[in-house]
């Protein structure tokens, strides 16, 4: 008697649950469909073409023969594929030397920028109540609006007087001009780190130096990656500063070397595009593998700060 009375209730309960849940499910599905913003997608697609199309032309032209490169059809595929342009550009620009100098300058810039910006930001954030540190932060922010061409002449004279008219001087200047933006990113991120972590470390007997290197600096890893990538791109692609500071043409970086030999590339488009591709390949590869850290570091600094 009891079993027979309860049997009809099961379909009714299931039907009522479906009635309650189905509108919610339909609403979730509707909201999910509305997240696709086609106008924005189309705009992003068109913007991506402005990058992908020149990249395709560069790769295609670098793999063509000299005759194919001047046929007036830059969008055509190389047939047959010819890598002689890379070997000619390699020998013509003395690519190994220029590449090594660019790598050393970039590594020095990245390491120096990350370390100095992290130390300065930590000192500013943890001593914000002191006027000197607060004014120092504003001074560094003001330096962001001072481009290198404005102070190019005194910098050239100064590096020449102290014997830094070489890649070392370029590295130091790269670090100095990257500090303002890097400190801005680090300070925003450091404000999200609670002071209780440092207080617990000090209770355990850690000094300020130990607290920074063993506790704070590891927590800055996402933002350090972001700062390092920005410093890498700025240093690797810089043309003006090395061209004005470095006195010896044999010690120039890749962008300047390409400019020096540009007249010899004028009639050999495959050689010129091969040289351009070899110069920008490291920056493209580094950014492709580290772009998620750029977004992660900027997002965390913006949300938590």
Q: Could you name the key traits of this structure?
A:
305 residues, mainly alpha, MetI-like fold, 2 domains, 78% helix, disordered N terminus
Offer a quick outline of the entry.
The chain has 305 residues and is mostly helical. The protein contains 16 helices and no strands.
Strands, helices and their partners?
Layout: H1 2-6, H2 9-34, H3 38-62, H4 66-69, H5 84-92, H6 95-126, H7 131-143, H8 152-161, H9 167-190, H10 195-203, H11 208-219, H12 221-236, H13 240-245, H14 254-260, H15 262-265, H16 269-304
Helix pairs in contact: 3-16, 5-16, 6-7, 6-9, 6-12, 7-9, 9-12, 9-16, 10-11, 12-16
Can you characterise this structure?
This protein is an all-alpha fold. It folds into 2 domains: 2-84, no CATH class; 90-304, MetI-like (MetI-like fold). 78% of the residues lie in helices and 0% in strands. Helix 10 (195-203) crosses helix 11.
Radius of gyration: 28 Å
Structural class: mainly alpha
Strand composition percent = under 5%
Name the helix and strand elements from N-terminus to C-terminus, one letter apiece.
HHHHHHHHHHHHHHHH
- Main beta sheet strand tally, sense and closure: none
Number of domains: 2
* Beta-strand segment tally: 0
Helical residue percent?
Answer: over 70%
Write down the overall geometry: globular
Instruction: Provide a count of the helices.
Output: 16
């Amino acid at each position: 008697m009891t079993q027979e009375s309860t049997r009809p209730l099961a379909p009714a309960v299931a039907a009522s649950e479906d009635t309650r849940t189905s509108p919610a499910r339909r609403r979730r599905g509707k909201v999910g469909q509305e997240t696709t913003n086609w106008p924005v997608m189309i705009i992003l697609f068109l913007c991506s073409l402005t990058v992908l199309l020149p990249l395709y032309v560069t790769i295609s032209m670098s793999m063509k023969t000299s005759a194919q490169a001047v046929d007036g059809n830059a969008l055509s595929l190389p047939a047959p594929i010819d890598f002689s342009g890379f070997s000619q550009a390699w020998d013509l620009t003395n690519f190994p030397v220029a590449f090594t100098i660019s790598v050393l300058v970039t590594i020095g810039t990245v390491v120096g920028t990350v370390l100095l910006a992290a130390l300065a930001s930590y000192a500013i954030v943890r001593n914000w109540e002191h006027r000197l540190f607060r004014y120092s932060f504003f001074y560094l922010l003001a330096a962001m609006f001072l481009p290198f061409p404005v102070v190019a002449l005194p910098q050239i004279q100064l590096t020449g007087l102290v014997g830094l008219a070489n890649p070392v001087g370029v590295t130091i200047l790269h670090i100095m001009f990257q500090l303002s933006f890097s400190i801005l990113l680090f300070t925003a991120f450091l404000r999200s780190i609670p002071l209780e972590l440092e207080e617990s470390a000090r209770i355990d007997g850690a000094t300020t130096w130990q607290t920074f290197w063993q506790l704070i600096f590891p927590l800055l890893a996402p933002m350090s990656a972001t700062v390092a990538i920005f410093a890498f791109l700025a240093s690797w692609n810089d043309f003006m500063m090395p061209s004005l500071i470095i006195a010896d043409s044999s010690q120039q970086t890749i962008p300047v070397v390409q400019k020096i030999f540009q007249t010899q590339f004028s009639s050999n488009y495959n050689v010129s595009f091969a040289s351009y591709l070899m110069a920008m390949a490291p920056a493209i590869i580094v950014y492709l593998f580290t772009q998620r850290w750029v977004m992660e570091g900027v997002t965390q600094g913006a949300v938590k700060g």
